[in-house]
Amino acid sequence: MAKNELFQYSIMSALMDGVASHGIPIASMLTHGDHGLGTFKHMVGEMIVLDGVVYQMKSDGTVVPLDAASLATTITPFASVTRFQPTHTARATITGKEGLSNLLTRLMPTAKNHFLAIRIDGVFSTIHVRTAGGQLEPREKLPAVGNRQTTHTFENARGTIIGFRTPQYMMGINVAGDHLHFISDDRERGGHILAFESEGEVDVGVALLSNFHLELPTEDEEFNEAALVLDAKGIHAIEG
């Protein structure tokens, strides 16, 4: 795929309904992008793709990089990736998700109906994350999995936030709003971001994604039988 085109496998409403037993190999996903996020089979942990390397962020707050063998055998039931090349950059102090939202609006005021790819590098005075431990049985729905999530707060953490802004009309296809994951520079801590504040100025890169490629599961009984209805409140509750 060309730079700054978004590839997505499956949809958020399917994950909400517990469709997580099958998917595509991580190696296949990486042919579409080097920057992204998602989850793993049975929703075991959070995924971050940074500079082409895939990391699994586990419920105990630790991080495991996937080696070449794991890339071929590990699957993802839901992921979004792009070949990231920032089109807008800034140095800024960011006070939480609202501060980031305001910054993105200033940088790209006409992009409210587009996908954006986001990368932030720097030191964060506080960063609050969660990680999912996984399904206890096939088809367990995401809200039930989320009820067992673990949360961690890191202070004075140097690292990278990556993610995407999804327009409101795509809620249910993805997570509308800013969906962000964090990984520390030492690659030992990370998770799905619930809240954060930067320690002084950080480096922000953003790219507008005008092309969206969606691959739906095929020959997947779970997906074919799922009740794919929009649960906007449920998605916001679980994704923060």
TrEMBL record:
GO process annotations (BP): acetoin biosynthetic process
Top-level division of the source organism's lineage: Eukaryota
SUPFAM superfamilies: AF0104/ALDC/Ptd012-like
Enzyme class, first EC level, given as a word: lyase
Enzyme Commission number(s) from the entry: 4.1.1.5
GO MF term set: acetolactate decarboxylase activity
This protein's UniProt keywords: Acetoin biosynthesis, Decarboxylase, Lyase
Pfam families per the UniProt record, alphabetical: AAL_decarboxy
Pathway participation: Polyol metabolism; (R,R)-butane-2,3-diol biosynthesis; (R,R)-butane-2,3-diol from pyruvate: step 2/3
Catalytic activity: (2S)-2-acetolactate + H(+) = (R)-acetoin + CO2
Listed PANTHER family: ALPHA-ACETOLACTATE DECARBOXYLASE
Family to which this protein belongs: Belongs to the alpha-acetolactate decarboxylase family.
Name this polypeptide is given: Alpha-acetolactate decarboxylase
Organism: Cercophora scortea
